[in-house]
Amino acid sequence: MASLIACPHCGPRPKEEFTIRGDAGIVRPAPDAGEDAWHAYVYLRDNPRGRHKEHWHHTSGCRRWLVVERDTMSHAIHAVSDASTEGATA
Amino acid sequence: MRYSAFSVFLNALRGNKGWAPAWRSPVPKNRYDVIIIGGGGHGLATAYYLAKEFGVTNVAVLEKGYIGSGNVGRNTTIIRSNYLLQGNNPFYELSMKLWEGLEQDFNFNAMVSQRGVLNLYHSDAQRDAYTRRGNAMRLHGVDADLLDRNAVRQMLPFLDFDNARFPIQGALMQKRGGTVRHDAVAWGYARGADSRGVDIIQNCEVTGIRRENGRVTGVETSQGFIGCGKLALAAAGNSTVVADMVDLKLPIESHVLQAFVSEGLKPFIDNVVTFGAGHFYVSQSDKGGLVFGGDIDGYNSYAQRGNLATVEHVAEAGVAMIPALSRVRVLRSWGGVMDMSMDGSPIIDRTHIDNLYLNAGWCYGGFKATPASGFCYAHLIAKNEPHETGRAFRLDRFARGRMIDEKGVGSQPNLH
């Protein structure tokens, strides 16, 4: 993991201030979307080796939910944005 | 060559010039009956049991690095079968029984040491949970002993029994649990498989899987195309990367788990001890180093290295359990990439493709399972039906609501 995450509100902060939630790409299906859609939502994950978008919470800072694009092989952080600007996700 | 005290003696007299490499470095053939992707403990064990127990010898194990470079050499070498749930317990007990006979079976000194595993408990509720677990183990025919505070104190007097937050009340002990030299497990299985005709091909990374008419016909590798009758995935840590090649989406995330070795010390920890109030487990190797580990770092990672925050957390848990550790210096640490599954349990199953098999999702419990995983996977590949002790590890159990959630935390992989 990179040592710093550049929070769009607070600037570069130590990663210990942040809490990971997980994959930002999964979208909660409609209640009547069917078993396959719900199974995919609850259990299946993309898990790429390379760039991956995740939800991180700036728990010890502004307490905003962020979308962090991170490389799972090099741990480099490529982009950080506020989750509200990324549209509706889980 | 069969290893024995006599062969050591004879080779000593001949200036140790008679030793041959323990396995060959063959050029891959054009085609194999079975190709196993992943030359870790599970892949090598699978090849070994395929050849030895099921008579399937036209087998190749493809390893992208070298034998022992992955998770089989990156764990804390603990073996145990102290599981609670129905789907888990008989499987891990099969593994324990195979460990007990392994060295004679594959004629290699794996330093299997049944020194006992103690899980400490720190509250009445935890004692009750461990009592339940111990009873479940005994009902499955597995040894389990509930120790009180004094019994633990006699064995491990240096523990912090009166820790203000987490006083130690006792422990659940499995006497048959212990440690194994992990490199020797890889080498022993590799040698045993090789001597029965299996080709172990190192530095051979699979880059693609070729399919025709809904069946796998072979794999593209860094050493060219190799055809196969059946393809078996055993690439835990990187299972998703391989499964992506056949459009198979898995209920798995890859996470990094760190482990540590201290400087060499005189013998003082005789058993494997686990902290019940945090995630910490420790044993002492025969060289004297303390081998210990904790929890995963918590974020998706394919890098075989972790973060200092987790190092600090592991050290804090260790010192809370054994205050004397505060003066011990850590010699080295390393990270391994874990397939964290959605219920904390593994997958040994067929897939949506007829001749493609999947062995994945070992979370951080894969090492102890190596013999049984290899045995059950070999059974599945050879007979196309699951071994009776591994039949709960189905890929479709998530869709069918048949999770094996030993820890009871639900589908959040970084919590298992």
From TrEMBL, chain A:
It holds the Pfam family SoxD. Gene3D superfamilies: Folate-binding superfamily (3.30.2270.10). GO terms for biological process: tetrahydrofolate metabolic process. InterPro entries: SoxD (IPR006279), SoxD_sf (IPR038561). It comes from the Bacteria. Signal peptide: none annotated. GO terms for molecular function: sarcosine oxidase activity. Coiled coil: none annotated. NCBIfam families: soxD (TIGR01374). This is Sarcosine oxidase subunit delta family protein. It comes from Shinella kummerowiae.
Automatic annotation (TrEMBL), chain B:
GO terms for cellular component: cytoplasm. It comes from the Bacteria. It holds the Pfam family DAO. Its EC number is 1.5.3.24. Its cofactor is FAD; FMN. Residues 34-78 form the Rhodanese domain. PANTHER family: FAD-DEPENDENT OXIDOREDUCTASE DOMAIN-CONTAINING PROTEIN 1 (PTHR13847:SF287), SARCOSINE DEHYDROGENASE-RELATED (PTHR13847). This is Sarcosine oxidase subunit beta.
